[in-house]
Amino acid sequence: MKFTLDVNSTCFEALSAINDTDGKGLIVLDSKKPIGFINDGDIRRLILNGGKLKDNVSKAMRKEFLKMKIVPSYSESVSLVDKGIKLVPIISDTNELIEIIDVISILKIPIHDPRLVGNELKYLINCIETNWISSQGSYVDQFEKLFSNLHNSAFSTTTSSGTSSLELAFKVIKIKKEGYVLVPDLTFGATLNAVINAGLIPIICPIREDDFSIDLSKVSNEILEKTAAVCVVHLYGSGSNIADILKLKEKYNFYIVEDCAEALGSKDNGIRLGSFGDIATYSFFGNKLITTGEGGMLITRDKKFFDYVNLIKNHGMSPQKKYWHEVVGTNARMTNIQAAIGLGQLENLESVVNRKRDIHQIYYKRLSKLEPLLKMWHEFDNFYSSYWLNIISIQNKSKIKIIISEAKKRHIDLRRCFYPMHNLPAFKQFSDLNFDYSNSLKIYEHLICLPSGLNLISDQINAVCDLIEDFI
Ligand SMILES: Cc1ncc(COP(=O)(O)O)c(C=O)c1O
Question: Which of 16, 263, 305, 455 is the most exposed place for a label (fewest CB within 10 A)?
Fold first, then answer.
């Protein structure tokens, strides 16, 4: 077991083993019983007192050290670290070692972490036992079916990532209509990469301040008339002024692709995001609301789009005639193994969303008291957010650097938001000098993303709030 050393070892062997623990030290075991703790300082003291490196480890180890019967809580861990205790052996009633807790690991508050507590393992084992591990297998079908049921019976097809879903969407649109794809200035770069890789030209558009969504009221008729599609990105689980975009669609006849990578579970007027556009795409990367490690989904109500996406995603090969390539395609399939995890995750979507909303409420209750020094994004009337990520806007932007550097010291993973696309070397050329990008620049300068993982406990959320409160 990591962090342990047999009592028959020498101090030299202990030193080399301590080296592999980042200096945290070792618990010395006699059979399965922890009998001492040793770190490099203990060996240094032995040598200064005339001891030798070849001496037995018991000559240098401390016999008084902390052992616990249950894993320390977050607040207990904070005070342990304050006292300089980095390792805690957890023991049974008979003083046998069960595990060693690296206390810092309890203190780490990640921005996201997956939670795999449903049928994921059972379904995975079934994949292995039945030998169905490639992209053919019943979990792929079941995952797609359940996703369709949740999204008002749209056609759903799994993909290898959120990015490949987007790319497939734009490739299909390109066949129907040439022209620009309007994308918001604030998004993850995958949105633009997908448009460009599909052979279309993106135009980076200004965004609205309240929900970070694309602001088509700032786009000229001239551009709208040459637009093949608008990519609506529902950033951070927020909505996107969809009613106005749908009105413009009537007038200009463009396609709508909803990038729902960050918005699974959010609803606008009771309707799930992803149900408004011609195509919607989802990501199941490890940090997303539900995950398959890497993976994605594309949904559409248009059967022709659906068939064409499936054709391209399977090498462009005819489903009826093996090895008959009808069009140029790619391999963007999800494996049965990923779908098995995805199905287990999706079955728990409601409880995942409830958990995310609970996390938001704890933050909101505390941090909304700090207004106007900060403002926390909170759903509007008639909108139901799955709060993939909790975000705050700090009034005094000069505090952000301090807050983030203090967060590092407290093992809290705070992040800034994405860079506005119009400033990035890869995408600059797709910006428009006539556009006013001040909203995205302002959001970028003031926004901080808070840890929002499903395994967060209240103690940890409060620790994040304490930090913000201390340095705002
Ligand atoms: C808004 C947005 N679009 C697209 C993607 C790409 O998804 P993936 O990482 O699954 O390719 C992501 C994130 O990962 C995203 O946040």
Answer: 16
